[in-house]
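In the previous chapter we treated chains in isolation. Here, by contrast, the input contains four separate entities that must be folded as one system, with a combined length of 1364 residues.
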Amino acid sequence: MKTFASDNYSGVHPEIMDALAKANHDHAGSYGSDDYTARAIEKFKGLFGDDIEVFFVYNGTGANVLGLSALTQSFHSILCAESAHINVDESTAPENFTGCKLVTLPSADGKITAQQVEQKIQRIDDQHHPQAKVISISQSSEYGTVYTVEEVKALSAVAKKHNLYLHMDGSRISNAAVSLNKSFREFTKDAGVDVLSFGGTKNGLMFGEAIVFFQPELAKNFKFIRKQGMQLNSKMRFISAQFEALLSNDLWKRNATHTNHLAQLLDKGLRQIPQVKVTQKAEGNGVFVIMPPQIIPLLQNEFPFYSWNDQLSEVRLMCSWDTKEEEVVKFIAKVKELVAK
Amino acid sequence: MKTFASDNYSGVHPEIMDALAKANHDHAGSYGSDDYTARAIEKFKGLFGDDIEVFFVYNGTGANVLGLSALTQSFHSILCAESAHINVDESTAPENFTGCKLVTLPSADGKITAQQVEQKIQRIDDQHHPQAKVISISQSSEYGTVYTVEEVKALSAVAKKHNLYLHMDGSRISNAAVSLNKSFREFTKDAGVDVLSFGGTKNGLMFGEAIVFFQPELAKNFKFIRKQGMQLNSKMRFISAQFEALLSNDLWKRNATHTNHLAQLLDKGLRQIPQVKVTQKAEGNGVFVIMPPQIIPLLQNEFPFYSWNDQLSEVRLMCSWDTKEEEVVKFIAKVKELVAK
Amino acid sequence: MKTFASDNYSGVHPEIMDALAKANHDHAGSYGSDDYTARAIEKFKGLFGDDIEVFFVYNGTGANVLGLSALTQSFHSILCAESAHINVDESTAPENFTGCKLVTLPSADGKITAQQVEQKIQRIDDQHHPQAKVISISQSSEYGTVYTVEEVKALSAVAKKHNLYLHMDGSRISNAAVSLNKSFREFTKDAGVDVLSFGGTKNGLMFGEAIVFFQPELAKNFKFIRKQGMQLNSKMRFISAQFEALLSNDLWKRNATHTNHLAQLLDKGLRQIPQVKVTQKAEGNGVFVIMPPQIIPLLQNEFPFYSWNDQLSEVRLMCSWDTKEEEVVKFIAKVKELVAK
Amino acid sequence: MKTFASDNYSGVHPEIMDALAKANHDHAGSYGSDDYTARAIEKFKGLFGDDIEVFFVYNGTGANVLGLSALTQSFHSILCAESAHINVDESTAPENFTGCKLVTLPSADGKITAQQVEQKIQRIDDQHHPQAKVISISQSSEYGTVYTVEEVKALSAVAKKHNLYLHMDGSRISNAAVSLNKSFREFTKDAGVDVLSFGGTKNGLMFGEAIVFFQPELAKNFKFIRKQGMQLNSKMRFISAQFEALLSNDLWKRNATHTNHLAQLLDKGLRQIPQVKVTQKAEGNGVFVIMPPQIIPLLQNEFPFYSWNDQLSEVRLMCSWDTKEEEVVKFIAKVKELVAK
C-alpha cells in the first residue's frame, strides 16, 4: 500500500536505517553526551554557522512548543495563522506548556503577512492584555505554500520593531529550501528567524526533530526546558545519528527534491482536469484539490488520503520520500477515469 | 567501551533492531492506527488480560508524568519515596504537568511502606491542603530493590481505603519480575496497581515505554493527555514493533535474567572484599557500593559508572543487556587489586 | 471628580458600607464558615432555587477563570466572542489556569450566535485538536448589549447537543436583568446556563463576585479549585455581607435601573447630535460612540472616559451607581458645544 | 464570642474601617492609578527606602505565590520548612502557578537553618534535577517563632553564595518586628531578603497583603504576573487606604504589641500549670500547648481554638488585635480548673 495520506505514513529512508544500525554498537553516553550528537550538531553548524545552539527532541509538537517556551513568559501571546499546526493540530500543548495565548490571523494560503501581524500587536504594556511576544510561521506552510526570503524578512522586521521574536515551524523545511532554491540559512537565520523547528520525521527519519537557536543566549535554560518538557531522549545517539545521516550527502535535499517534484506532477496533472480545482500553489510536497465529492471515497479506496475541508470537498494529497512517480501517474489517471463517469 | 554507568548507555538489542527493520516497509497509518500497534497491544493483553488499555510514549518521564496526570486533578498530591525518579530525576515535569504536589517519604532502600503512607494521608477534604490521590512506587526501585507481592498489596489496600490510586513506575519492571519469579500480572494488576509505566528503553529498546491502565475507564481521556503531553509518536509502528519483539520469545525475560544475574555476581564478588560495602540488596540490575574514595576515579577510568552519594563515597553499578560476565569478573578483580594497594 | 470611565471608578454604595460596618463585630469563622455567608447563599437560593451551589471570590477574573476551570480539562477549548473579557482583558489567566485554548468568534456587537458556535465545534474526538467544551458569553456584553432569553436558549441548545457547557460572565448581570425586565433565573438557569459569574464590584460593592453553579455536581471539587486559585478570602464575612446587602431591598435593581437609565439618556442625547454616531444599542450601562477625534481629549479633560477604538475614534461611556443625571446632561451639552465649534 | 482560633477570626480595626469610609467618596482611577495607592506606597518607602517596588494583592496565598513566581522559572525548586504555609496550607497553588517543586526541610520550631539549606542545594546545573532557586522562610513562623537578624543574614548568605533568592512570608511580620524590637528594614531588606509578603489581614485589615521587592528589577514583569494571577483589585483604593492606615500612627505596631503581649501572658500562665506543656517559644501572637486530651473539647466550647496535632494533643492558641487581656486571664483560669478535675 502506498498512500497520499501523510508524509508520516512512509517509513524510514534506507540511509537513515543504515545510520541507526551503525550507531548501534558499544556503550555511549546518554542524554546527548555522545559522539553522534556532537557530530550531528557540527552538521547543523555547517549549515548555519557556529554561533547557534541545537537540541534534539522527539517530535514536532515537542520542537514547536519547547522552542516557543524558550521565548516566552506565561503572560505573553503568540501570533500565528489560524491554520497553523500549533493552533489546530497540537491539542492545547502550546497553551498548556507555555501558558500563552495564541492569537490567530486568518489566512487563505497558510501564510501570514507583516501587515496583518503589525495590526494585531496591540495594547503593549497594558497589564490586562496578553502581551505579544512571538510571531510563529510554518515553512512550508500547512497549505504547502512557501514564504519567500523577502516575506520572512518583512515579518522579522515587524518582530524586531516591537521587540518580538520570530519562530519558524520547519517540520517541512527541506521542502521549502528546495522550493526556494536557497540555502537553509538564507531564509532562516539570515532572514531574521530566532528559533527554528527543523523537521526530520516527515523527511525520512524514524523519529526526531531539531530545535535551532540563532541567538545562543535564548537557549541558555533550554536543557532544563527540554527535560521538563519530557522531550529528552536517553539513548540520544539514535536521534543524532539520524540527523547526521540526513545532513550528509544531501539526503535531506534528495528526499525533498523528490517529493516536491511529485507534488508538481500532481499539480500539473490535476490542473488539466477541468472537474477538479487545485486550490493552492504546490510549492512543497502537498497538493490541495477540490474534487467532485462522489469520487473521493472511490479514490481513497485505492490511494488513501485525507479530506481537508468536507464542506468544500477539498482534499490534501501528500507525497513522501518513498512515493513513486508511477503512483502519481496512476493516481491522475484514476481521477480522470472517475470524473469521466 | 563497556560501562556500568546506566542501562541507557547500552544500545539496542539485535532482535529489536530486527523488528525495526521488518517494520520498515510500505506505508502504515500514523499515530497508532497500524497493525504493529494492534499486535503490540495484543501482546500486553496476553500478559495482563483483555480488560486493560495500553498506550505507547517516548520515554520514562513521559510515561510516569502522563500516567499520573490521568489519575489526578491539579489540587491533588502524590506520595512517593524521597528517592523516587519522579521526585529527583524528572526535573519539575510532574509538578508542571499535573499541577500536583509530590509528598515525599524517607526511605533507606528506595521502597516505601503501607504504614508510612497511611501516616501521610492527612487533612482529607480540607480545602487548604493538597489532597492525597496517588501512591507512586518504583518497581524495581531506584536502589535496585524489589517490592514483594505482599508489599504491593499492602500499599494497594491503603490506597483503596482512602480512595487513592496506586501507580507503579516500572522502568525496570522486567528486572523485578525476574527477581520475584512472578508473572507481571501477579505483582501489578492482581496486586492492586491501577496504572503502570512499563519500561522498554532500559531493557534493550531504542526508545519507547508503555502505559498500562488496569481500569480502562481511567484511560478514557488519555489519548488527549498523551497528545497534549507531546508524547504521541507519529510513526508509531516503530515503537510498537519494538514492544512486540520485546514481549515475544521472552526477550524481556532473557535480558532481565541476564542483567539480574550479573548484578548478583557483582554483589557476591564485592561482598567478599572487606574494604567495600554493598549497601542494598541486589534484587534488580543495579548494585550500590561504598568504596574507598581514592579508588573510585581509577575504577571509573576503566569501567565508567556513576557516583551515587559523594559524601558517603557510594557508587552505583548498573548492568545492561549487553554487559558481559567477563566484564563483571574483570571489574571485581580490579577492585580487589586497587583496594590491596 | 465624576467620570464616565468605568463602573469600577465609583466607590461603594452606602448600603454596602453599612453592611460592612455591621458585619464588623465579634469573631466569625473564617473562609466562609460564618453566618453572613450562610445568609448570602440563602439570598442566592431565593433568586435561583435551592438546587444551586454558590461560592464567593475576589474579582471578576477569578470568577470567570475558576468557573471555567470547574468545567474543563486542560485539553479542552472554550468558545467565546473575540471581544470577550476572558479573551482580551484577563491577561492569559484563562489559558494559564485552565490550560485550555480560547477559540474566538468575530462579533460586531459583543454577542455570539448559536449558528456561529455550531460551525466552530469541529474535529470532535480528534486527539490532535483542542476539544470544544464550553461556550462562554457575557451578559451584558462588553459592548453593552444584552442576550435575549431566546438567544441564550439557542446557545444552550447547541451546547447540550454537543455535550458542552454554557458559561455566563455576568459581571454586569444586574444591568442585563433590568434591561430584559426578567428575573435573573429566567435568562440563566432556566435558559440553560450551567455556571454564572455574578458580578458585584461593578454594581456598588467594594470587592467580591459570586460563582453560581446550576448543576451542583459541577461544584463538587470547587472548594479546592478556589483555594488553589488563590481566591479564597479568609475574612469571608466581608464579601458575604456585601452580597447579602446587594440582594436585599432590591439594591442590585435600584443601582442597575439607575445606570441603565443614564445610559439611555446618553444614548438618546447623543443620537440627536449628527456629528457623533452611537455604534451599539445601549441596553446596559455603557454607551459606545464615534466622535470627531479632536473633541475627545477636550471632553476627557472634564469627564474622564476611555477610548475604545483609536482607529475608529470610538469611545466608551460607562455609567456607575453614583453617576448623576445632571452629569449626563452636562456631558451631552458639552458634546454639543464642542462639535459646534 | 471571642476565640483563640485564628487572627483571621477577628474583624477589622476601627482605624481601618475609618480609612475605608474616608476613601469612599468620588471616583478614583482603578487598578492602582489613584492617590490612595500612591500614598500607601510612600508609606512603604518610608519603612524600606525608595529603591523598592510595592504591589497590593488580595490575600496571603496570592502574595506568596506571585512573589515566588517573580523569582522563578518552572524548572526551579523552592526550599522551605516542611511546616511552611506555602507547603501545607495553600493547596497546590505554589506548584500550580510557579510549576516549581517545593523541597521541604524538617523543622521542630518552624524555622530552617542556613546549614540545612546548604545541604539541600544539590545537583546544580544537572538538567534532570529541579534547580534550587529560592529559600522561603516565614517570619514569624507557623509555630510563632521568630528568626533573628543573624539567622536571616546567614540564610541570605547561603542564598547569595548559590545564586538563590531569599523570600519571606511575612503574613505576621508585624509580630516579628515587635518581638525582635527591630525596624522592618533591619531583618528584611538589610538582612538580605529579596521579596517580602507583608501581611495585613492578620493584623487588623479587612483584606489585602503587600508584596515588597527589594531589588526593583525583580518586579519588572510583576504587573503582568499579578493580573494573570487574578490578584489585581479593580477598586484598588480600598486595599491601599487600609495599608496607609496600618502604617500610620504605628497602628501595625500597636496591634502587634498587643497580640504579642497577650501571647506572652498565655505562655507565662500556661507554663505554670504542670499538666500542660508549652511546646514553642511564644515570640509572636501564637502559643502552642500540649494539653490533656479530655480537656480540649471542654475548653473549645468556651474559647474556640484549633487542634494543631491530634496525635500529640497539641493545640494552637492565636491572639488577635481585638483579643482582651481578661479573656486570656479567664482562659488560663479555665485551664487550671479543668486540669484540677
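Chain A touches chain B through 51 residues (CB under 8 Å). Residues 134 and 292 of chain A are 40 Å apart (CA to CA). Compare these points with the single-chain example from earlier in the chapter.
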